[in-house]
Amino acid sequence: MANTTTLEPPPSPKPFERRGQVRLSSAGRWILARLDALLSESLRQAAPSERTRYRLMVGAACFLTVANTLFMLRAFQVHTIPYAAFIAGSGFLGTLVLARRARTSTAPAMLLLVALSIGLVGSIFVNKKPTGGEHAVNMLLPLLSVYLVGPRLGLSITLLVFATVGLAHPYYRLQVGIDPSAFTAGNIWFGHVFAGICILGAWGLSALHSTARNAAQASLERTLRELRDSESRLNSILESTDDIVVSVDREGRVLTANSAAKLAYQRAGIAIDPGLSLFHHETPERRAEWEARLAQVLQGKRLRIEQLYGEEGARIVMDVSLHPIVAVDGRVVGVTLFGHDVTARREAETRLGEMHRTLVDVSRQAGMAEVATGVLHNVGNTLNSVNISTSLVTERLRKSRISGLAKATQLLREHLSDIPSFFAQDPQGQKLPAYLIALSDQLQEERDGMIQEMHALGESLEHIKSIVSMQQKHARAAGAVEQISVPQLITEALRLHAVSFERLGIRVECHYDEVPPIYVDRHKLLQILINLMGNARHALVASPKQDKRLGIYVRCSPAGELQIEVADNGVGIAPENLGRMFTQGFTTKKTGHGFGLHISALAAAEMKGRLTCSSPGLGQGATFTLELPMATQP
């Protein structure tokens, strides 16, 4: 039995997950959605890590656009034309336009970097004081705070720096005094407040990057966790089955194998270690055969074969399925083999086939016995008529007046010498002519009656001869498919029951549509018809109705099949018994064996047809329908 693997519970949340820093807030999701709206469809469909860079790019462009606008407004107030800021602002806006249309990030990123470089360089050269680059050192603090402690704690530090640089420091400079010719109070406040705003902007960009990075990290960890769970479940399924599961690469080398495969190969003394060829133990012919199969599967096909293994007396049959392993890019990178031991099933199928052949033989014998029973039954009824005719002829011969003729001829012999005087004078001789005339009439009547009885006797014997001849013909045709006329075969079947139907007062009604001859096994079809007619006779005999009718109908169904219906108005079938009528051993007759309808249903199936029954209920008759394919060719 293959080893089973127990599914482990998912790992517990990590510390930083419990603090909720990976889980995005509603504000974070809103910001990311707005940034994604600034990207083109191609950039939005990129990988998570790449999409993070694109979001940071458009976020930086938005922030720099706002900052540059404030700088330009201040420059206009002091009557200065900020050419560098105008060029930089145009570049920032151009970056947003390109990001909305570009297929790659190269063009908008380069435009953003060039515009930012022009703005920074221009502002340094325009500022005549050497303090223009001091703010770059202050930028490191919010960047590092966000990176090390996160956006929330980093915000408190950034606000502290903003209060110090943007508010406290200019207030301090104005209190201690400065050279008015070099700096004015407005310049000092604008420079330091603008620096504080830039520091807040640095924090915002860092927080944006941190949020996006955490989102990507959360997505990656969630994907990995789902991948581990899926791998664990898949491994549990593969290990819990007794089937052999092996995956190989394009060269046929083993990649993975479940415990059932390892155990099966281990019993055969074969190594199945990863990296080894799965077919290294096979003969050259068998190895070439497997390589050809793998080549087909590597082209994207699926194969299913049955392979025989083992020596004589200990052979097993494996049902092997080969499926291609397809990579993400659509390439076939390997093959998975699934092997299922079907030895027991094949042996059962073999035994089932033998049982089926035996059942067919029994069915044929039962059908022949059914036909023979019908023949004997009808021959017996006909012999009754023969016996009656024979008895009547014997009785008439016994009571015949032939003895009187013998007495009259004896008198004539005694008076041969004096015939004229005997007829003229003897009282007996005078009565003899009248007696002979009356005797002649009686003998003529007796002869006509015996001729009539002998004619009836000849008809009965001819009927017996035709029944026996028909039975012999059907016995010879058993198992042979031939072209027959269905109405003619039904007529022959009715002849086997004709005497009993007439004696029992059963009226037979036949309605045949125009149907072409079909190719069918004559014996099987006759067996079914005789069985259905026999069952109908029993149902009509058991019915108290006086008007006993049996209807036989032949028609073509809407589906193009030949339908033969045998309907009677006999005792009918209970609704709970309709589903069991064709079950072997089931019967509603006191002396039945439950074999006839079962054999008939099997015979119909062998002719690629089907036999069904229906009945409104007890006392309302029953209808059996035989459907056969309209085969006009053998």
Q: Could you explain the architecture of this structure?
A:
The chain has helices at residues 15-18, 26-37, 41-44, 48-77, 83-101, 106-126, 135-149, 151-176, 185-240, 259-267, 284-298, 343-398, 402-414, 419-425, 427-476, 486-504, 522-541, 596-606, and strands at 244-249, 254-257, 303-309, 316-326, 332-341, 481-484, 506-512, 518-521, 548-556, 561-568, 610-614, 622-629. With 634 residues, it is an alpha+beta fold. A 5-stranded antiparallel β-sheet has the order 2-1-5-4-3. A 5-stranded mixed β-sheet has the order 7-9-10-12-11, with helices on one face. It has a two-stranded antiparallel sheet with strand order 6-8. The longest helix has 56 residues, at 185-240. The protein is rod-shaped, with a radius of gyration of 55 Å.
Strands of the largest sheet, in order across it?
A: 2-1-5-4-3
By DSSP (H or I, 4+ residues per run), the number of helices equals: 18
Content of β-strand: 5-15%
Rg (CA only): 55 Å
Which word captures the global form? rod-shaped
Number of strands: 12
Class by SSE composition: alpha+beta
The run of helices and strands is HHHHHHHHHEEHHEEEHHHHEHEEHEEHEE
Task: Label this structure with key terms.
634 residues; alpha+beta; five-stranded mixed beta sheet; 61% helix; disordered N terminus
List the helices and strands and how they pair.
Elements: H1 15-18, H2 26-37, H3 41-44, H4 48-77, H5 83-101, H6 106-126, H7 135-149, H8 151-176, H9 185-240, E1 244-249, E2 254-257, H10 259-267, H11 284-298, E3 303-309, E4 316-326, E5 332-341, H12 343-398, H13 402-414, H14 419-425, H15 427-476, E6 481-484, H16 486-504, E7 506-512, E8 518-521, H17 522-541, E9 548-556, E10 561-568, H18 596-606, E11 610-614, E12 622-629
Parallel strand pairs: 7-9
Antiparallel strand pairs: 1-2, 1-5, 3-4, 4-5, 6-8, 9-10, 10-12, 11-12
Helix pairs in contact: 4-5, 4-6, 4-9, 5-6, 7-8, 7-9, 8-9, 12-15, 12-16, 12-17, 12-18, 13-15, 14-15, 16-17, 17-18
